[in-house]
Amino acid sequence: MNAMTHFEAVARLGGVGKAAEELKITPSAVSQQLRVLEHQLGVRLFRREKRHLSLTIDGERLYQTTTQAFESIREVRNAIVRQRESFQLSMRVSPSFGERWLAPRLEEFSADYPTWELRVDATPNFSDFETEVIDLDLRYGDGGWPGLHSSWFLNDFILPMCSPKYLAGLQAQSSDPREQLLRARLIDSSKAYFRWDYWLPRNGIQGARMTYPFRFDRSSMSVQLAKDGAGVVLESTTIAYDDLVQGLLVPVSPVFDVIEFPGYWLVCPSRHMNRRAVRLFSEWVTRVGKRDAERARTFLTEHGFRTTLERRPNFIARE
């Protein structure tokens, strides 16, 4: 390849001296590389007439090929450098999180960083950073991704909630929140970190029906069904905060502590953190995440709820 580089420069510039000047080496070093290449190929590449060089037929064939090859290499190299130095991010996110939390905040992000380009892939599949062109992944879990950098950026708050009308119907049947849940239609988010089979015994509720007429692998669908009045969902303020603030969903009762845990993480190979764009986005999403967690905590406190920091082992990663 070194000899090819010297050959291409001589053929393109029309002389050894000009090639040496471009390559920042001596003319004798260029001539030496040309002799090496001709010896390796077993053909003459140049006709030497006094101080003038002209390509032979074999030299012309080789020059056409090397010119195209080196131009392609230069274009790719320049594109890589531009991408590294520009503010472009390609990220993957959990679908419900992307729809309910990230998307509504991207306008705020664009106001802070108006020249950035973002590509967001909302999918339940975790990124394969070795085979896919993905800068980072925003995931729900406990931070356990071996071999990868993971930084927490948002706490989650879990509690049972339903529509105001559905809660009024439960309260008409009983004044005891535990009895209300025994009578309720439970909506299951099948990939949630905390599910009914864990939460109900934890809160002293025995004998509940553990069969669910509605089960979804998308938290956004579970929340929507609860908002429509079909039952009670055990979900997070991250997914349902706007509905809670607007009164479209209401917590079942402050009798039950709200579970708080560090649920959302930025995940990527450690080398990706060397990119300024990845570092700046990490700082932004952490700042916004902490702000929103404090908003949710304030909302819950004002409505008489207490939060308990907790982690549950042996979880199944959520979509």
TrEMBL record:
PROSITE patterns per record: HTH_LYSR
Matches recorded under InterPro entries: LysR-type_TF_proteobact-type, LysR_HTH_N, LysR_subst-bd, WH-like_DNA-bd_sf, WH_DNA-bd_sf
Cross-referenced CDD domains: PBP2_GcdR_TrpI_HvrB_AmpR_like
GO molecular function, a single term: DNA binding
Every HTH lysR-type domain range: 1-56
Source organism, top-level taxon: Bacteria
Keywords: DNA-binding, Transcription, Transcription regulation
Similarity-based family: Belongs to the LysR transcriptional regulatory family.
Protein name: DNA-binding transcriptional LysR family regulator
Organism: Aminobacter aminovorans (Chelatobacter heintzii)
